[in-house]
Amino acid sequence: MPINHIFIISIQSLLLCTFLSVNGAVPSDSLREKDYPYLFSKIRKSESRPELQKVYLQAFLRNAKTDRNWEMIVNGYKNYMDYAPGKLAITYSDSMVEVALGSGCDKLIGSAYLSKGIAYYVLKDHEQALENYLAAQPYIESAADTYLDYKLKYNIAHVKYYLGNNEEAIALLSSCLDYFKEHNDRAYLSILHSLGLCYTKAGNYGQSEAMVSLGRKEAGRLDNHTMDDYFKHLEGQNHFFVRDYALAIQKLKQSIPGIEKNKDYANVAVANFYIGKSYWELRKFEQSFPYLKKVAAAFDEKAYTRPDLRENFELLIKYHKKREETERALYYVDQLLKADTLLLSRHDRLYDNIHRNYDTKELLREKQDMEEQLSYEKTKKRWLTAIVLILVIFSLLVIIRYERHRRFQNRIYRQLIRENQKEASKNTPTRVREMEIAPETLDKILNLLVKWEEAEGFLAADITQTSLALHLETNTRYVSDVILNYRGKKFNEYINDLKVNYIIEQLKSDRLKRMYTHDALAKEAGFSTTKRFVQAFKTRTGISPSFFSEKIRKEMREK
């Protein structure tokens, strides 16, 4: 500690002692003449009177420095650390370690690092706690101090428990059990409780309950009940995990008052979480909500969380989403993201082992969705109106198009009924070009073509330009030119149209053929496949053969 800081503490102590002496709060005998056990006892007993306690803290440290007693100087700073609020304890722990290092004593250095680690553990900074425990280890081993050795194992076990290394934590705690059973009742009971916590976290609830039973029995034997509320706290958690929610709620509620007296906000938060979650599992959501909210408040005020408490925010998100309280749900999404960041900053391995219903990417996506939903709600009616209007317009367009198509089909149908398809096939269009065919040859080809049409030679299934050329006693080029100039079509179109016209006339005149299937009609006309028949019919007429057949059947029935 800097010299000016020490000077200020000394002046403050002198003035305060004078003031308190006048008011009869400090004995008239000089604190300089009191030994360290006396001052340490006064420090403990004056905890409820901070100003008086400060006098004894300063006197202890001042006497130690006057005596140049390294061990007591270290203990003086440790006293300040033990009673300092929040992060101020870390400041005093830094001075404690600095003095210990200056002493060159392995036992003091190891003890100082260990105490600093405990200070970090109290603040739930488990990574820094473990770092200081590991820094203490070589000095404690070198000092060969049994008490410090077991104390170090005990505290490292708690960090390993927090990090999820349950088997290693159980092994370390078990190795400490016999020693503390003989030398420290409070620590012995705490180890039994810690073993129970490890077994619970590992899912071995039966073994955890065995530790609770043994702890209660030993507490009675030793007449030491400082851990009773913590055993009840653990018992409540075990009841939750075996789904005995009503008993879990009862035990956890009973444990809270005693734990609160110890200012143990962390275990109070754990109790509130499992009470809230028990009500949630019982589907008593309104009773669950106040306890879940207390856990969230602990995070707000103390930045305290741990992997299993992470679900608390997920339940609050579900609660507010179910009530359509989107803004509150978004608030707890943000808190959940903060909790994830905090857990990640404490330990990567710990964060990797967290079992999570929303991951960070999905959580961010869900947050974005909810924010968009808030914006969407403001324009929902307008969009609904626009969508309905679009649907109405679309429906009208579909109806109009359908009516137009129906009228077109009926017009085509009427035209086909009026026309004589045989005569239509013989219509000779204006010739598109002069042909280099002798007139007598042309007349011959045309006469044979007409006779072939009248004989319905086109109904054959295997007609080609070559086969028709043989029938017309000419070549394929002449056949192609004559059909193009005198029938106005290419060869395939000409043949298909003849076949389709034939079918149309058959359907108009033959009641039986109106009942034919497409397959039968295709075969009747000489098409190689039904698909080609349907395509040719649509190309020729603009309507399907099924529409034509059904229409003509309907009209015939009405007659």
Automatic annotation (TrEMBL):
Q: What UniProt keywords apply to this chain's record, in alphabetical order? A: DNA-binding, Membrane, Signal, Transmembrane, Transmembrane helix
Q: Where are the transmembrane segments?
A: 383-402
Q: What is this protein called?
A: AraC family transcriptional regulator
Pfam families listed in its UniProt record: HTH_18, TPR_12
Which SUPFAM superfamilies would you find in this protein's record?
TPR-like
Q: Which Gene3D superfamilies match?
A: Homeodomain-like, Tetratricopeptide repeat domain
Where would one find the signal peptide in this protein?
1-24
Domain HTH araC/xylS-type positions = 443-551
